[in-house]
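Suppose a colleague, Dr. K., hands you the sequence of a protein chain of 625 amino acids and asks what its three-dimensional shape might be. Before reaching for any lab equipment, you can write down a predicted structure in token form. Begin with the sequence itself:
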Amino acid sequence: MEHLQFVQWHSQETISKRLNKWLRSAPIWEAADKCNDKVKEFLHRTNSIERRLSAPLVVAILGGTGTGKSSLINALLGDRVVQDSKERPTTIEPILIAHSSIDISSLGKDDVISEEIELNKCNDNYSMVDLSGIRVKYLDNSVLKNMAVIDCPDPDTTEDTQLRESNLKRLRLVLPHCDLLIVTATQQKYRSRRVLDELSAAAAGVRLIFVQTHADSDRDIREDWRNILQGDYDTGQIFFIDSLTALKLQSEENEFLPKEFEEFRQLLTVSLNEEAALRIRRNNYFSLAEKLVNDCYEVITEHWVAVSRLRERISDERRRLGERMAERIRDELIRDKRLWESRLVGRVASQWGYSPFSLVLRIYQGLGWLLSGTLLFRARSPIQLAIWGTYAGIRSIKSWADKRKSKKVADNAIWNQWDEQKLRESALILAGYANDAKLPTEHCDPKFVIGEARKAGNAYVDNVSQELEGICDRLAGKNNKLWKRLLYEVLLCGMILFILIRPAKNFFYDTLIEPQTQMLGIDFYLVSCFWMIAWCSILLGIFIFWIRSGLEKEIRETSNSWQRLSALDLFFATIEKETIQIINYRNELDEIHQKIATINQQAEKLDKRIGRKKFADMTPKDKIN
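The predicted structure, expressed as tokens, is then:
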């Protein structure tokens, strides 16, 4: 039993710690506030359960007026302990009946029934609980060895629950502190809506025993009663008892009591021993935990669709802004590719090493850089200025100060391309969605969003520059193939050889064999230089044509990914962080739910004659990524 008690305590301790952790991790969200209130209520209520592990079971009798609650208690105890009547309510306040050896304070320091009690143990004298109005009666009765019995007020006689002295008020103070609830009904009362409502409210944290009384005069309605209850309860065995007959036979010291009454008494007095009490309290704890999780799921589900819509809208706004910016950058890069051609030509030339055509490429690159610098000073496009500034800041071997300067120019230029009016529209739209999701809207304020846009602009510059770096690497690799290199080198070297062989033949051969042959003059060399430049220009033009077409194709293909650059995640990042906290909050609840389910599967089964409340699976099926 000590091992069972340790396992029970350890399991409850684990769930309590997880719930406290979940409580502390709650996001700023209306649904989380409601869940926190439920968790606090649960922890307060179950705190007394943990302290009562070794105390006797608290068994309450619940039923409508005239269902024989008091008579059932008298029959169970074998003596007329409480006043009973079929015609009118006799229990107008809770009555606690306990063994004279039981310390009432062991039933829970914070419990209603453990408030300051002035006790008089003489005969049938009752004592009043200071605030709650519960009376306590002590008996030297063996039936009470492992349990204390509470005769509850009738729930269907007083409607005003605000009155401190109402039966319902007293009843609702008692039921949360019970371990086992005996529910009585008769042929006339088993459909009572008020009793069913109070049972539903109290049944989450208790185990149930259903009893139909007045077996001497009523017909057996247990099957119909079971059908009414089966949607919400596992009823276990429903007993059919005539309390007055059972009490009379006991007073006559008759050994042969009615069969079902004897089974009922054996269940309470023998089967529910101290070890069974531990199991009942353990299962009650996890039933309450299961109800708590379902209640929290229900609250979260009410707001979940709105949170999902908010996240979808954040993605839509990011995509819209990203598409617009990617389109503008793509169009401007395609319209003026000269700023990137010279860099790409230089990359190819450096990979080719030293050769005649690579020398032509290096000369072109030098002219390209000079032209690019001139164009940069005359650039009217902030986007071109921004990307080139960052690109130059990353690739050049300038000093750190020059790099920061170019980066600053780039940041300011790209920021100006986020349309401020569009940003304000997006902020106002998201504020409406955040309000629907019951989240704070200050992170959707236009000024706050514009501040995030500045950070996004800085990151976007870096992302696009890295993408362009990748484009240059890919195109340089495509144009560095051996067959291409040989083709251009052969064509250029052929022209060079032609220009060199012609004057050499004229000087070394023609003038010696045929002295009358004139030597080639300076005009030949000028013409040769012209054709050499023209030939180099033709080869260079073909090379640049393929590079330019490849660059345009790569920019068009790669720009599609610019709509999803990681820099865009900085837009609305703070409000998105709030939704991520909500997702983590629900995921933690999922883990707690799974932990409770695992413990329940491993739990030792209780007596099948004892019923319990069913819990529908409220776990949300939709997931937010």
